[in-house]
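Below is a filled-in request sheet from our internal design queue. Each sheet records the structural input a requester submitted and the sequence that came back. We keep these sheets so that new team members can see what a complete request looks like end to end.

REQUESTER: design group, bay 2
PRIORITY: normal
MODE: inverse folding
CHAIN LENGTH: 206
BACKBONE (tokenized):
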């Protein structure tokens, strides 16, 4: 008699190798998808950083320094006429810009503009005419006419520019209270367009 036949053992090694390979490939695909997703989420920041690295930082644009104005009568006359034209045409913010630094401290730019929004000048849009200029050191006196009135205005040479200096009593007025209070006082004096002086308002009898 021969030996009993041994049962045949199947070799599963190739199957396990194939399964392992599939698992590894799946993990690799998942890892790739995660990386791509993160790249999409951070793409804007990465592009911005790359752009900053590629483009050298540009210095901020600076305004060229203003050329110093001459200290002669012709220059003062030209500056004064330009300043008064701003005032007479209702460009009060730009007019405030040409004041001396000390005068600007008496009222803010916004406050000055607000003042004329609430109290329109009676003689708006009527130009001043410069008659004469007298310079003494860094100060100048400007004589100007408007309608039948003659006025004297002060200018000071400050920082290489001629600057307008409002009268001392005007600066005191600006500092006397709020803009609304200054307007009420002007209306009481009748110096606002359309206002009636308080002394012309009849007092009601009781």
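RETURNED SEQUENCE:
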């Amino acid at each position: 008699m021969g030996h009993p036949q041994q049962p045949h053992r199947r070799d599963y090694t190739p199957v396990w190798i194939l399964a392992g390979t599939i698992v590894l490939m799946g993990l690799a695909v998942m890892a790739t998808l995660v990386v791509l997703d993160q790249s999409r989420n951070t793409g804007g920041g990465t592009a911005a950083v790359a752009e900053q690295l590629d483009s050298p930082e540009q210095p901020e644009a600076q305004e060229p320094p203003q050329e110093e104005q001459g200290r002669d009568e012709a220059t003062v006359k030209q500056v004064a006429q330009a300043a008064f034209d701003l005032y007479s045409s209702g460009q009060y913010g730009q007019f405030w810009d040409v004041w001396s630094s000390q005068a600007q401290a008496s009222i803010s730019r916004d406050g000055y503009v607000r003042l004329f929004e609430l109290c329109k000048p009676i003689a708006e849009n009527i130009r001043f005419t410069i008659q004469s200029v007298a310079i003494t050191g860094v100060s100048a006196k400007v004589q100007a006419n408007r309608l039948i009135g003659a006025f004297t205005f002060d200018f000071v040479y400050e920082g290489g520019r001629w600057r307008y200096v409002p009268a001392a009593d005007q600066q005191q007025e600006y500092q006397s209270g709020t803009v609304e209070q200054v307007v009420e006082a002007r209306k009481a004096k009748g110096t606002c367009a359309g206002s009636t002086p308080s002394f012309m308002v009849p007092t009601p009898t009781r």
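SHEET NOTES:
- The helical segments are 13-41, 43-54, 73-88, 92-97, 101-104, 109-118, 168-174, 179-189.
- The domain at 73-198 is CATH 3.10.450 (Nuclear Transport Factor 2; Chain: A,).
FILED BY: M.R.
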